[in-house]
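debug: dumping io for the single-chain case to check the tokenizer round-trip. Nothing else runs in this session.
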Amino acid sequence: MQPHAALKYRPEIDGLRAIAVLSVVFYHANLTWNGANPFAGGFIGVDIFFVISGYLITTILLRDMQLDQFSLLHFYERRARRILPALFLVMGVSLPFAFLLMLPKALSEYLQSIIASTLFSSNILFWLQDSYTAEPSIVKPFLHTWSLSVEEQYYVFFPMLLLISWMYARRFLVPLFITGLIGSLALAEWGSRGFPDAAFFLLPTRMWELLAGGLLAKLEIKTGRIARPQFNSIMPVVGLLLTIGAMVFYNEQTTHPVFYVAAAVGGVMLLIWFCGKSDLATRLLSSKFFVAIGLISYSLYLWHQPVFAFARLRTGNLPKESEMLGFIALCVGLAYLSWRFVEKPFRNKKKISTQKLWPVLGVSAIGLTILCGAGLYHMGLPKNLPPIAARAMLAQKQKPDLVQDGKKCIGRIVADACLFGKADAKTAWTIVGDSHLDNLTASFWKMIDHNTSSLAVLTMNSCHYAVGAEILFNGRPKFCTPDVNEERRDYLKIHPNNIAIIGGRLPLYLSKNYFDNQEGGVETGDTILMRPVGQQLSDDERKEKIGDLIVRSVEGLLQSGHKVVVIYPIPEVGWRVPETFVQRIPKNFSDIPLWVENEGITTSYDVFKERTREAYAVYNRIMPNKNLIRIYPEKIFCNTGRAGRCLTHDSNDVFYTDDDHLSLAGSALIVDAILREAKTKWNL
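debug: decoded output
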């Protein structure tokens, strides 16, 4: 069989690859300018890659079919040569760093991600992981492989479907492409509203982007790239503006980001179709810089996330922007080396024959899987840790929340809420709030009298009790839809004797900014926006109205006769406490007690006060009432062991599981305060 039909080289497509990979790299670097992140929409670079891949792969397949040269085995070999050698290299190089820098929970997730990547299913793994209990995305070295898995899954079935269509429905290929594209796009739009994680990670809601490129390939082979002269110089610039504009104008108030992705995809399609030789966009994309970055774009994509993740794990902080620029330069250097000495040789059959290729790839895949499987099997705490460090690491694993019928209580609809204890219990408690409140549930049920008390759990991630409010993550409704708080209100209405415990991470919801402890501990996360349902407001108006909703919701319970416990903000930390604790603890055991007492992991009380000022103002607006108790976690954690500091541990226990959620030991302190106040005020 002859070699497959060669594609005419188009340097502007390498330039597009450069824009795609640079946008993703700078997005993950989390660089800011004047306090804003100009790369907030940089994740759209992955969508650009999908369109390019769909175009190139479909062009190769259709040309091979036209020439009667198509071979499924040869196609898979070309894909394997392109994707796997560099991927396995980066995985292998990362393993020693992972075992050196990661604690058991993070290491377990990392090893699972390598196994899933070798099985072309890491997108499914990351979709299934609970984003609240899993490690943060910025310290997941192989989170970015989800996009490779999407492409690999597409490559498994698409060539076969295309071949069948070519054989039996050749005249209808264009309608078939359009139908698949529209169907997948509609599914993505629908999924982004109700199932955003699935819409982000899974092939059915990403396939339209690959099909968009495929449609262009089919039209080009059928008719050639027909363009009117008046469009040749305009449309490439329009395409470039659409693509860049979608990245620039995306922000946390974007309700449906699929629109911005569609704009970028449309821009890429215009560039692929209309780029010629003389227009401005083509000249820019074909410049030496963009072409050079485009050539190494795959390796750069592979290297950047592990380098960034291990850099953050090494310090426990977010590296400074100057340091991140250095890490970006390191990634470019590593990308060039792996492109030059791995990618290029493996793509050349004269250097790496088919007979050599499969044994090398097979041994690599099996070896990585065995190493990761062995690591998971023998997972446990490192040997010879001092007791306090071992407890810090155990704090990650000991869940401070409740489970019923094999399912977590948090995140359930009210009709399926967890109920513990007797229905006719003398005292009925209901915990209503977000994950901060949910972390109190296990300690609460443990510390109350099961013979006289019951407990209902109405908790939802990122969902403070505020009837009429909603939470958007990355511009999409998630977790805290309007129905959640309405159902909570209705539940409490028909249970007027329940004591409602209410609170949550209000400083985050009001400010929209994750915590910066001003000492190097900077938390990152998805953009988050709490607002009155469907209202686009200025920030000051939004905060005022959110405060009104919270006050009205709590006072409504008090007026209906409920007893209410309001939990004021729990101090955030900025550092992931267990990891930072283990990293900083003295190696000399004899120095540990003094370090724990005089240093340890603490944060500024002044920073806490400024961070929580607006949240305190909201809670303080709730009118005094004989049925109201206010609990101040700052009185437990701040100015107790050290003046002007908030503690994350004492000499016996660590109080946090990460950078803001309490451990079992920490939550027990809050619950003890609640029970003491309730006994004093209400004689319970």
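debug: round-trip ok. The first helix runs from residue 11 to 29.
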